[in-house]
Amino acid sequence: MGQVEEAKISCLNLLTCHRELLVSTLRSIQCLLDNLLASGFFCEEDVEIVQRTITKANQARKILELVQCKGEEACEYLIFVLYKVHDAYIDLQPWLKEINYKPSRDVGEMKVVNTDPSKCYRH
């Protein structure tokens, strides 16, 4: 199992390397907050910190900062939400293909809910 773990690209490093793209592209902030809170990676205080931030770009920066402080599993879960909630993060789907993202077994079993309000208008 050790070799498989070593070969896997760190999600924390992916978020760091692609921070600029993520900050400029992430728009459905509430969906990320809802899932991070429901999964236990964020607490109410984390959500309030992000919500007090004015612009979407700064909210995205704050989410990335907080998630990276929580560790590798939290970072992978954030990427998993982007992967699972395809409609809300349609602009990031080419990036997910570029990095060849495949969820790990542990994260792949975690629940993700699309709480993006615009999902009602997309098909």
From TrEMBL:
Residues 13-82 form the CARD domain. It holds the Pfam family CARD. InterPro entries: CARD, DEATH-like_dom_sf. This is CARD domain-containing protein. It comes from Ataeniobius toweri.
